[in-house]
Amino acid sequence: MQKVFSRDGDRIVARHNGETLWLDPIGPNGMRLRATRNARIDTERPGALLETLPAHDAAIDLTGEAAILTNGRLRAELRLVPRGMGPAVELRVSDRVSGALLLEEEMPHILWPGTRHHSAEAGDLWAIETRFAAQDGERFHGLGQHQHGRFDLKGCVLDLMQKNTEITIPFLISSRGYGVLWNAPGVGRVELAENRTKWVMEATKQLDYIVIAGAGPADLLTEYTGLTGRPPELPDWALGFWQCKLRYETQEEVLRVARGYKARGLPLDCIVIDFFHWTKMGEWTFRSDEFPDPAAMVAELRDMGVAPMVSVWPTVNANADTYGTFVQNGWLVDSRRGAMDGSIFYDREPDGMNPLRFYDATNPEARAFHWQHVREGYARHGIHAFWLDANEPEMYPMHPDNLRFHLGDGRDVANIYAFLHQQGYAEAFAADGLTDGLMLSRSAWAGSQRFPLVVWSGDVRSSFADLARQLTAGLNMALSGISWWTTDIGGFKGGDIGDAGFRELLIRWFQWGAFCPIFRLHGFRQDAARDPRFGHEFSFGGADNEIWSFGPEGESILTRYLHLRAGLRPYLRSQMAAAAARGIPPMRPLMVDFPDDPVAATIADCHMLGPDLLVAPVLEAGAETRRVYLPDGTDWICMWTGTRHAGGQRIEAPCPLERIPVYRRAEAEMAGFGTS
Q: Is 392 labeled as catalytic in the residue annotation?
């Protein structure tokens, strides 16, 4: 029988039945498996890993029937297993410290197909399915941001495809003490079923995934970010309050709002200029009639201590001055066949629906040309913060099988678009010396956390149901390695500022926002009492969205939380440093800080902010109390009343409209908020 296993330095190589597998140690406690039925493994494929990786201390043992890799606490074994259609090479991974099985590949049938099934697509692409055995009681978390409202992903089928409000970050944490990074930017799905776990790729050259072992979620996040990058420290203003709405239409309106905050003695750290301030999409410059002197606007804002941020879309209007250059150089996302892919969406010139295409962020020359215009249109005026909207890329309908990128077939690379768009900005910040450069992005991928980046949850509706879904989405984003995450406080669409129900929702969302990593008020507001166009017509914009826009009671409560957030900033600075050092997000599920508390592992309606604050958002209309679980191992102090509670129990927490339940560890030094 032909020899199956061999060694190439620190790598195990297996060749069997036309398939080549590489099994490599990675990091202090991980393994990387690559497999293909092509002639060779492609080592130039885009992925999430850093160019320089942490050291490992691995050992390899080969026998005729198996090849074993040990690296730290991880043990990976490739076995030649008898099967009905002949022997198969299968993977089994265990924890050397506990001896526990972590995961293992599984044949779906006694005869066919195998654990790694390849179906030929065009050229060197394959549709690939990989199957792992299900384990009783296993819980899964991570995989980015999704709007299904579930914290435990066991039982879910999740599309691996970027969409508005849906962010694919293919990193999964298991309650059994391992993490999986699916290091492939193609579209597909993952099925976390009761009977099997299955990863499916629609068209890719090869399998590429990493398994890491760890003692708990915190260890796994540190290990994962050691491989894919830790978040840099953001400019200090990012920890304060961001004011935003759809949309501020003129330079004077932007300044009037900023002056309004300062005149009232209210903290304001950032003001955001949303879309359609530009001439045409793809020209990335202010309209001179509405923003006649951007440099003067920026100077006044900075004198007030307010950082300006501007919305930048990756779309190019077919009427834009830059369009010809993009086309001639092949710098636009193209189609494999038929009409050129893009979007039909509203733009200012000509006024109405316009054909739009997306610049190809997978092409470094296109990224450089894009930044040249962003620099000329915005950065030279002193704007160093950019809102990267619609960068999934947002196409309707989205057909990855018909997209052609510089990097290849859309099915194989589409999910990395936002990551490379962000990388272009990060590289430009460094090259231009913009040490305070920052991005706000609607999409992300594995490794995006290593850029100066904030991610937000997209265009969600204004409802308590959506508020609750954002909490579970944020918890899973944290377990996907994203440290700086936020939402549109109040929801993006459907909120009428004169409606009492919406005002209650806005207050509850704002209270929670004050304890999120980033504190940002945004929305496309309606005002039925003033003009029916508000909140319905992009060109007209939305109703008012400042904290004084929601009635006297609302303004009083929101003002208190603005000042409360300002008082939290020293604590948040310490959490920023911790995230940069270990990759642990400031906002995280209780189980990260309390891995030995089995109840904490199931809690999805509260979160920690750093190691000392437990935050319990109010997620139901009309609530005056809510149940809160306080983890075992410490006592907890109510930050409003100073009342002490033993850990390891559920309490009924008062939550009148002006109060969100927040508790601190009894041993932590932190001033309370006072009675209310």
A: yes
Annotated catalytic, 427? Answer: no
- With residues binned 3-state (H G I as helix, E B as strand, rest as coil), the percentages for the chain, rounded to 5, are 25, 30, 45
Select which of 77, 389, 496, 527 is catalytic.
389
C-alpha to C-alpha distance for 79 and 67, rounded to whole angstroms: 7
- 192's tokens: 């976390």
Buried residues in 625-638 as b, exposed as e (16+ CB within 10 A): ebebbbbeebebbb
The overall average pLDDT reported for the chain is 97
pLDDT over 60 at 340, yes or no: yes
Helix axes 364-377, 417-432, angle to 10 degrees: 60
Catalytic status, residue 389? yes
Residue of 334, 459, 504, 527 marked active site: 459
Q: What residues have CB less than 8 Å from 495, skipping those under 6 apart?
A: 462, 502, 505, 506, 523, 525, 526, 535
CA distances from 363 to 66, 253, 358, 370, 611 (A): 42, 37, 12, 11, 41
Catalytically annotated residue among 95, 274, 392, 527? 392
Beta strand spans in 3-43 (E):
5-8, 11-16, 19-26, 30-36
Short-list 501, 482, 481, 480, CA closest to 491: 501
The DSSP secondary structure of 65-130, one letter per residue, reads SEEEEEETTEEEEEEEE--TTS-EEEEEEEETTT--EEEEB--SSSSSS-SEEEEE-STT-EEEEE
In the block, tokens 């004050």 appear at 514
Q: How confident is the model at residue 676 (pLDDT cuts 50, 70, 90)?
A: very low
Instruction: Identify the DSSP state of 535.
Output: T
Q: What's the pLDDT tens digit per position in 391-402? A: 999 998 889 999
- 146-191 pLDDT, tens digit each: 999 999 999 999 999 999 999 999 999 999 999 999 999 999 999 9
Split at pLDDT 50, 70, 90, the class of 674 is confident
Q: Which residues, listed in sequence order, are joined to residue 7 by a DSSP beta bridge?
A: 12
